[in-house]
Amino acid sequence: MQAKGGVEALKAVRTVVVDADMSVNTARGPTIIPTKTYVAYPDKFRVDATFAGQQSIQAYNSGSAWVKDPAGVSAAPMRNATCSVHAERTDFSPANGCISF
């Protein structure tokens, strides 16, 4: 880590983009859901996912959380908003159970 600037350089990072494959068990067996997570510290994040050919977006921005899916756009349940606040202070991963598709 020192070769990359040490702890101070790591603490200075404000934007992170992560491509990941999330494995979930469905009635048809294990399924891979490709996701792309954007985090802009200290108070924004977005998760894009594609499941069964449908796109889902879950986002948090400075105290507001919402979901966009094939049914339209709606406010995110408080559970997701609470996880969003947690995500802005820690390493965020959809696998932490806060995000559901």
Order of helices and strands: HEEEEEEH
- Judged by helices, strands and strand pairing, the structural class is alpha+beta
Summed up, the helix count is: 2
Shape: flat
Report the average pLDDT across residues.
80
Radius of gyration over alpha carbons?
A: 15 Å
Number of strands: 6
Q: Looking across the biggest beta sheet, what order are the strands in?
A: 1-2-3-4-5-6
CA(first)-CA(last) distance:
35 Å
As a percent range, the share of strand residues is over 45%
Total tally of structural domains:
1
Helix content: 10-25%
Oligomer class: single chain
Brief overview, please?
By secondary structure, the protein is of the alpha+beta class.
Commentary on this structure:
- The structure is a single chain.
- By secondary structure, the chain is of the alpha+beta class.
- The chain has one domain.
- It is 16% helix and 50% strand.
- It contains two helices and six strands, in the order αββββββα.
- The chain has helices spanning 6-11, 78-87; strands at 15-26, 29-40, 44-51, 54-61, 64-69, 72-75.
- The protein has a six-stranded antiparallel β-sheet with strand order 1-2-3-4-5-6, covered by helices on one side.
- The longest helix is centred in the C-terminal third of the chain and has 10 residues, at 78-87.
- The model is unreliable at 84-97 (pLDDT under 50).
